[in-house]
Amino acid sequence: MRLGRAAAVLAMFAVVASGCTGGSEPDVASSGGTQTGPVTLNLWIFEGEETFLPALKAAFETEHPNITLKITNIPEDNYVTKMDTALAADSPPDIGWVYEARWMKAGRVLPLDDVIASDHIDVSVFNQNALSGCMYEGKTYCLGSYTGAVMLFYNKDLFDKAGLPYPSATVPMSIDEYAALATKLTVPTEDLSKHVFGGSADPPFWWTATGTHFSDDGRTIEGYVNDAPTVHMYDVLTSMVRDKVAPSESDYQFFGNTEILATGQLAMTVTDNVSAIPLLEHADINWGAAPNPVEAAGDPAFVSAWTDQFGVFDGSDHPVEAKEFIAFLATEGNNLRAEKADALPLSSVVAEETDWAGQSEGRQETLEVVKLAREETFVPGFWDVTAPLWDSFAVVVEGDMTAQEALDDAAPKMQERLDRAWQTWEET
Amino acid sequence: MTAIRASEEPATSTGDTKLGRRRRPRRSSASRKEERAGFLFASPWLVGVVLFLIGPILASGLLSLTNWNLISSPRWVGLENYRTMIDSDDFWQSIKVTLFYTVLAIPLYQVAGLALALLLNQRVKGMYLFRTILFLPAVLSGVAVAVLWVSLLNPDLGAVNQALRAIGIDDPPRWLQSPQWAVPAVVLMGLWGVGGGAIIYLAGLQNIPPALYQAAKMDGAGAWQTFRHITLPLLTPTLLFTLLIELIGAFQVFDTAYVLGGGSRGGTRSSLLFYVLNLWNEGFRNGRFGYASALAWVLVVAAATVIILIFRTSSRWVYYEAGGE
To answer: Phi first, then psi: what are they for B193, rounded to 5°?
Structure first.
């Protein structure tokens, strides 16, 4: 009877324990060096890589028959939370998008300098601004296969119709020149479905140099976000919305400016090449690319760039194989990115070899514009710190405040957020 | 005759008698075995509760006294997070938004739900169809409903403002884009799902013994008197239940605010920065889990206080049907 009770207790705890155990797949490999047995690498990613990653997986597994790449898609909204939780539980995936710089700072991502050296990966041919998101204290923590960049896209047919010259692909317009050009391109009608907007206008913090809103060290807001040139920029952009030169938030609530550009109802907009080029080409728009407008004529161009920054997380059971995958992504992956996804590779050499631009003037201009990408000031929690600017912009559009009042009002709120973000960064 | 009386503590069977406290009888060995077996069979659940509910609750209490960003070790800061809260504009704004919503939404939903239930309680042909139609919005996804309402409430092109303009209101509210109208817009949206509450009221209405209505009718009571003195008092337990559920729901508004407010921004000028949205922002967007835990504890204490107050005062306004002996 006692034996029976003991068996019952054991069985019960076995049930509980089995419920608490993760369903990890059996692996021959143990942590450490290269394995000869079958290895499964877990990779976490969010939406948008449905074409490229399966092709990359197939190519990688063909070259490494003992390695299986298991891709898990996580909605981008939840990606950071899920990764943070996995890191806290010491069970991150082998490979993932290094979304947060603090993961590098906390030592939760492995440096790749060893594999870059051993595999002779020439990182000098990569877009350096895009790669800067992978760098921390002189070490490289991630590599990628494409170049994403925020720039001005425009509809050449609308320029031709208005008899206006195209914007330069190398010299940026001032904000006043941009607004004046947009006004000339606007074709106003009562019927919104036929109205042509000359340009888009939104809070410019995400497409202008960080110095427009922040001090050089990224720690101060006051006196930068509300200085005269920045106030003027907000004045000009909000006037564009009020004058119906630019679409308002409620004009096309379910469409972004990129989609409106692709319908032929918007002449210019600041957006990114990753989403814009496929959309414009699919819509058969005769498009061009130029650097983003700047505060004043003569200011240096600013284009921010990024890549699909994949890294290997600390805690991977197979760091050697995972790094091998990253090396494959940064080399063969660049070719596949151009061939399979038709996207601008991170490597300028691959872009040239694969003739990514071809005969497309727009693509050739895009290549010119991404060369202007330069390093930005690091600001921790950038999106949270700048969030009040959406409201500032909206209240100026509504006419409830002047741009100066709205930005003066936002400055202390932003400073509070910035101080907190720096504190969190420094505690990491 | 069944009587109606204010709620009282139900009679308990603790073993007390007129002769004094009775000694607990000695239990037999079989009874002890049975008790052990009971605990043994319940233990997987008990282990789960301790590990996955009580443990995290206690951990969150401790975390609220630390700075923790999930990937570094927590750093003890004592009550600093609670002090930070007092100085935080977002904290006070989130309280303001949540209270405004609570004050506006709960009475409206209670009255609308009850009115709808009274209509659905009528003996009319096809009533089951009406009940089904009115309950349908309650089973739809909150996010899907919110997306639909974003379109309906578009200030320039939305159907709501088109209708208002058609009846002569030239300058209708800008709803979600207006700091003053954003919360009323969310309340209006919630009104659409009031059928869910109405079903609960309907169940309450149908539990009222018909004999009471017959007696009232014989005594010459009119419709209003019957409602005032029979229906409403006997529906107060249901009202208490829905009040508590709606109150807890109001303290936990998140998905609607997230969708209608443009993600974590919390709407124009933080007009939709509900308490839980602010909590989520601090924890999951800003990586301040210690501070977010402190916010969670303030919410728990505030909600518990309000709920206890409601329970304590409920004996004055909640009526239960007494035994029919």
So the answer is: -100, 20
Is the pLDDT confidence value at B94 over 60? Answer: yes
Q: Are A40 and A66 in contact (CB under 8 A)?
A: no
The model's pTM: 0.79
| pLDDT > 90 fraction of chain B, expressed in percent and rounded | 62
The count of other CB atoms within 10 Å of the CB of residue A9 is 12
Residue B115: per-residue pLDDT = 94
- Chain B residues whose beta carbon lies within 8 Å of the beta carbon of residue A391: 265, 268-270
Give the other-Cβ count within 10 Å of A4's Cβ.
Answer: 8
Phi-psi region of B178 (alpha: psi -120 to 50; beta: other; left: phi over 0): beta
Q: Has residue B8 got a pLDDT over 70? A: no
Q: How far B154 CA sits from the closest chain A CA (Å)?
A: 6
The count of other CB atoms within 10 Å of the CB of residue A30 is 10
pLDDT for B14 equals 43
pLDDT at site B156: 83
Inspect the interface and report whether the beta carbons of A250 and B72 lie closer than 8 Å. Answer: no
Token reading at A248: 């308002």
- Interface membership of B86 toward A (CB under 8 Å): no
Among A182, A227, A228, A223, CA closest to A202? A182
Q: Are B106 and B187 in contact (CB under 8 A)?
A: no
- Two structure tokens written together for A72: 């898990």
Give the tokens for residue A323.
């790094």
Largest CA distance in chain B: 83
Question: Do A102 and A428 contact (CB within 8 A), yes or no?
Answer: yes
Query: Cβ of B281 and A249 within 8 Å?
Result: no
Tokens at B141, concatenated: 């996804």
Contact B210, B173 (CB under 8 A): no
Q: For residues B307 and B109, give the distance between their C-alpha atoms in angstroms, rounded to a whole number.
A: 18
SS3 category, A40: strand
Q: What whole-number distance in Å separates Cα of residue A51 and Cα of residue A47?
A: 10
Give the residue from chain B lying closest to A409, CA to CA. B269
| Confidence band, pLDDT 50/70/90 cuts, at residue B307 | very high
pLDDT tens, position by position, B142-169: 788 888 888 899 888 889 999 999 999 9
Listed as ranges, residues in chain A with pLDDT below 50 are: 1, 3, 6-33
d(C-alpha B130, C-alpha B114), whole Å: 15
| pLDDT value of position B325 | 38
